[in-house]
Every structure is written in C-alpha cells, then in structure tokens.
Design brief:
single chain; 515 residues; alpha/beta; Rossmann fold; 2 domains; two-stranded parallel ribbon; 20 helices; 13 strands; binds Hexacosanoyl-CoA; binds NADPH dihydro-nicotinamide-adenine-dinucleotide phosphate
Length: 515
C-alpha cells in the first residue's frame, strides 16, 4: 500500500494553475492514485471565450485524463472549479466560495504563475509575488491546513553558478517592490527594471526569486515547502510517455526544428540540458506534500527537481536525437527539411539567421504574393528569432544544483512509494525519453495522425528535390553572370569544356580500339 496515495485519501486539496501544463499532470496523478480524495478545488478564470465549466470539461475529456476515468468514474463530482483571478484583490473569489475554501482546505499546491520571460514587471510581480503573498494570507486562515507547497523554479537564482537548497535574498525587499508597483507608472517601471533584475536575464526569474522570499517571510505557523524544477519537459512514463500540450521551453523549438523553420541555434552543445519530465516533478511534489504534512520539518525545506547532477544530458546530444527522430517520424507539411546546427558565436549566428532563416522566409513570402496569397513567413520567422534570443541565456550556460533534500526525501519513501511516486531521474534513459518527447509533440500537441507518416516522408523528398533544383539553378545563374563579366571565369570555363571534350574523345578512341 502506498503511504502517499493513502495520505491524500479523503483530503480537500486546493490547486492554483491547475489549467496549466504542470497543474493538469498534478491533478491527473492525484485522481489516479487517490481516487478516494474528497475534492480538488481549482482556481480558474474564464479564458478565450470559455466559461469555467467549459474549461474543466475540456480538461477532463482530454486524452490526459483517459486513465483517470477508469479508476475514478465520478471525477467530475470531485473537481470544484472556483472562479478566481489571481490578478485581483482577494482573487475576486465570492464570499461563499472563500468561506468554503477556508473551512475545508487541507493541502495547497501553488502552481499558478506567469512564465513569460519578458512580462512587464508590474504584471510579473502581481502574479508571482503579490498573489503568492495573498494566498499565504488565505492559508493562514485555514484551520485544517496541513501543508502549503509552492512551485518555484530552479532558475530563480540563475545569476549564480552553484545553487544550494536555500533561499538567496534579493537586494530590495519584496514588500518594497510590491508597494512601489502600486504607485509607479509604467514608464518609470520600465526604466528601473534592468536595475532591479540585475544580473538575472528576465523579469520571470527575478519575480520567482522574490516569490520565494515572500514564502519565507510570510511563513508564520504554516507548514511550507518550495519545489524548484528546472526545465519541465513532456512526461516520461505517466500517464503515458511524451505527453505535452504547450510550446514553452524546448517544446516550441522541437516543433520549429521538425517543421524546418529552425535551421540554426546559438547554443553550447556541451552545456547541460537540465530537462526534467513533468511526471517526475509531479511525483516529487506529491511526495513533498505528504512529507511536509506528516513529518512537519522545523524549517521551510527547498527541493531541487533537476537532472544535471544525477543524470546529465547536454544540448548537443538532445539536438542530435531530436533530428534523428524526425528522420524516422517526420512532421506533416514541413516548410523545409528538418536539418539544424548549433552556432557558437555572434558572427556565425547572424550569418545563418540571414541565410537560413530570413532569406527563405522572404523568398517564400514573395512566392505567396505572386500566387495572390497573404505573406506570413517573415513575420513567423521574426517571432522565432525573438524567441530564440530569449532562450539563448539558458542554452549557453550550465548550472549545478545540489539535491540533498530531494535525495533525503527519496530515502524516506517506502519501496512501494518509490515505485508509485518515482522521482529518481537516474533511471531515465535520455535517448528513449527524447524520442518519446518528439513523438508526443507530434501526437498530443500538433494532433498529427501517425497514418500520415508516409505522406510526410514523400513531402520531405519533394522538398529535397526542390532544394537540389533551386541550388543547381542558383549555381548556373551565378556562373552565367560570372562568365559574362570576367575573362578569368571565361578562361576557366574554356579549360573545363576542352578538358571534358578531350577526355571523352580519348575514352571513345580507347573503347573503339578494344573492339
Ligand atoms: C550537432 C547537430 C545538432 C543540431 C541540433 C539543432 C537543434 C534542433 C533541435 C532543437 C531542440 C534542442 C534545443 C532546445 C533548446 C531549448 C531551450 C529551452 C530553454 C528554456 C529555459 C527555461 C528556463 C526557465 C524554466 C522556467 O522556469 S518557466 C517555463 C519556461 N517559460 C517559457 O518557456 C516561456 C517562454 N516564452 C515567452 O516568454 C514568450 O512566448 C516569448 C518568447 C517572449 C514570445 O512572446 P511574444 O512574441 O509576445 O509571443 P507569444 O504570443 O508568447 O508567442 C509567439 C509565438 O511564439 C511561439 N512560442 C512561444 N514560446 C516558444 C518557444 N519556447 N519555442 C518556440 N516557439 C515559441 C508561440 O507558439 C507563438 O506562435 P504562434 O501561435 O504565433 O504561431
Ligand atoms: N514549465 C516549466 O518549464 C517550468 C515551470 N515552473 C513553474 O511551474 C509552475 C507551473 O508552470 P506551467 O504549468 O509550466 O505554466 P503554465 O503557463 O502552463 O500555467 C500557468 C497557470 O497559471 C494560471 N494563471 C496565470 N495567471 C492567472 C491568473 N491571473 N489567475 C488565475 N490563474 C492564472 C494559468 O491559468 P490560465 O490557464 O487561465 O492561463 C495556468 O493554469 C509555475 O509556477 C512555473 O513558474 C518551474 C520551472 C520550469
């Protein structure tokens, strides 16, 4: 019997960010392993013209929840969507809902955040800092609360090279930042943002670090823990391999490489690709929830959920495996053949961006215009280049994260829990994982049918022929122009032609002699 699964039985659990990538995998695992839990409250906002109910319905009817429906047929009754916007005061939760949450919640998993790297500081502070503070305030009024688990990121201190499982303070107190966001106007905030974030690359990592400080400062009598995952990727094993449904982190670049948009990327092939599968993060999160509630550690423990120090993989190996998988299982309707390389300095990056990204986009848009269609490739390419520039910081450096607390927790689990809530990244086979990841991107994110693979391969062959034809035509045009303008080129051309002629004559003469 799993002690962790047993622990969540009968519990009322509050999850923020349950409609997000990690939140959905967390909810799925909870329902699947503890179908007898009392209720999962999720804080949801209406979005993209969908009501709360429609959003929940869509999640529960997705492929991800197929197994849950077998073990927990009444899952619809156990999920309670509460209308909330974390950008608003008291999250704009109704009095009645708030009363229910305060009275019944046993465990909180706080996943909601803005994960955009370039969010305006005011918005990033509101969601990643102020909302965390408000949620802690709510938590302090919950009589039954056993644990509050805060999801942060391993990159909250990416300005350091070696990172321990401790909180590193930022120079300006979070309370001062929260206060100043209330009265400073946008222009001044824009001006002070670079000074505040200092040697961090973006507002995301900075505000996640402030969020951790808030958790530490507002802890009071709460039973808290912080989890710091690195780059969360598709699922490794559960509920099935390769599940992913958004383009964040490496996923978007995998799509761009498979569709042939991404041809070169400024990355250090030997830098550690600190990826961590979503199901490993979720298993650790649930184990931490159990440990924090049952063992009540004296201080707030921080758990690194990273792979680099236990089972490292690098970007070079990952890139090669991604491309190798696309050879076997290509994406449909690719723009160009999946073929990409790493560049390591500014000059080659600029060169390949011009030759491999911008030029084909301009030529394709020209073709679209000629055929009376709306050009779109240049715009798409510019967005890709902007995204690449945002991610570059993370693919040209390596970090070391200590994992003492995570390893300590592993040793406290029973063999059954180590199996059911496996977060031992040493067992992960990277090549197999990356192949499943790429397959998952095709199946679950792009919703492409595997039956279309022969047609996709045919399409790549056509692209290859167009490529050869295009290069040959380009060479002939260039050569023709050169001959027209340069005496040296004409001499070379005359020499080649007469050499070929002599060679053919000799060959013909010798074959006539043999007969
Ligand atoms: C030897 C040979 C080998 C050769 C091999 C060659 C290689 C071949 C294989 C390649 C794989 C190997 C290398 C992998 C490297 C991975 C590095 C990952 C590092 C991650 C570190 C994370 C550390 C921290 C982790 C955390 O703790 S947090 C989680 C991370 N947080 C994020 O990842 C948010 C990022 N995003 C944004 O910050 C915003 O997206 C923003 C970008 C500002 C745009 O912003 P904006 O321009 O306003 O536009 P959007 O509306 O947002 O998007 C506009 C359009 O871009 C699309 N798009 C959004 N994203 C991405 C994305 N990634 N990739 C691609 N597209 C994306 C979106 O679909 C939309 O397309 P559309 O729908 O228009 O068609
Ligand atoms: N993905 C990654 O690589 C990593 C993620 N993390 C952390 O994990 C956590 C989850 O990330 P992930 O699942 O990837 O992120 P997603 O962007 O997929 O999910 C974010 C969630 O937060 C919710 N949210 C955002 N704004 C509001 C709001 N104003 N009111 C209510 N809910 C809101 C979103 O709701 P809605 O659906 O309505 O937008 C969504 O459910 C975050 O704390 C992130 O920092 C840490 C390391 C890496």
């Amino acid at each position: 019997m799993s002690m962790i699964a047993d622990f969540y039985g009968g519990k009322s659990i509050l999850i923020t960010g349950a409609t997000g990538f990690l939140g959905k995998v967390l909810m799925e695992k909870l329902f699947r392993t503890s179908p007898d839990l009392r209720v999962i409250y999720i804080l949801v906002r209406p979005k993209a013209g969908q009501t709360l109910q429609q959003r929940v319905f869509q999640i529960l009817n997705s492929k991800l929840f197929e197994k849950v429906k077998e073990v927990c047929p009444n899952v619809h009754e156990k999920i309670r969507a509460i209308s909330a916007d974390l950008n608003q005061n008291d999250f704009a939760i109704s009095m009645q809902d708030m009363q229910e949450l305060l009275s019944y919640t046993d465990i909180i998993f706080h996943c909601a955040a803005t994960v955009r790297f370039d969010d305006h500081l005011r918005h990033a502070v509101q969601l990643n800092v102020t909302a965390t503070q408000q949620l802690l305030l709510m938590a302090s009024q919950m009589p039954n609360l056993e644990a509050f688990i805060h999801i942060s990121t391993a990159f909250s201190n990416c300005n350091l090279k070696h990172i321990d499982e401790v909180i590193y303070p930022c120079p300006v107190e979070p309370k001062k930042i929260i206060d100043s966001m209330e009265w400073l106007d946008d222009a001044i905030i824009d001006e002070i943002t670079p000074k505040l974030i200092g040697d961090r690359p973006n507002t995301y990592t900075y505000t996640k670090a402030l969020g951790e400080m808030v958790v530490q400062q507002e802890s009071g009598k709460l039973n808290l823990a912080i989890i710091r995952p690195s780059i969360v990727g598709a699922t490794w094993q559960e509920p099935f391999p390769g599940w992913v449904d958004n383009v964040n982190g490496p996923t978007g670049l995998i799509v761009a490489a498979g569709k042939g948009f991404l041809r070169s990327i400024r990355a250090t092939p030997m830098a550690v690709a600190d990826l961590i599968p979503a199901d490993i993060v979720v298993n650790l999160t649930l184990a931490v929830g159990w440990y924090t509630a049952v063992h009540r550690p004296k201080s707030t423990l921080i758990y690194h959920c990273t792979s680099g120090n236990l089972n490292p993989c690098n970007w070079g190996k990952m890139g090669i495996q991604v491309l190798a998988t696309f050879e076997k299982i290509p994406l449909e309707r690719a723009f160009r053949r999946p073929k990409a390389d790493f560049t390591t300095n500014n000059v080659t990056t600029q060169y390949w961006n011009a030759v491999s990204h911008r030029a084909p986009a301009i030529i394709y848009d020209f073709y679209l215009r000629l055929t009376g269609r709306k050009p779109r490739m240049t715009k798409l390419m510019n967005r890709l280049l902007r995204t690449l520039s945002m991610l570059e910081y993370f693919i040209n450096r390596s970090w070391e994260w200590s994992t003492y607390n995570t390893e300590m927790l592993m040793s406290k689990l029973s063999p059954e829990d180590q199996r059911v809530f496996n977060f031992d990244v040493r067992q992960l086979n990277w090549l197999e994982y990356i192949e499943n990841y790429v397959l998952g991107v095709k199946k679950y994110l792009l919703k492409e049918d595997m039956a279309g693979i022969p047609e996709a391969k045919q399409h790549l062959k056509r692209l290859r022929n167009i490529h050869y034809l295009f290069n040959t035509a380009l060479f002939l045009i260039a050569w023709r122009l050169l001959i027209a303008r340069s005496q040296v080129a004409r001499n070379v051309w005359f020499f080649i032609v007469s050499f070929c002629y002599k060679f053919l004559s000799y060959f013909r003469a010798s074959s006539t002699l043999k007969v």
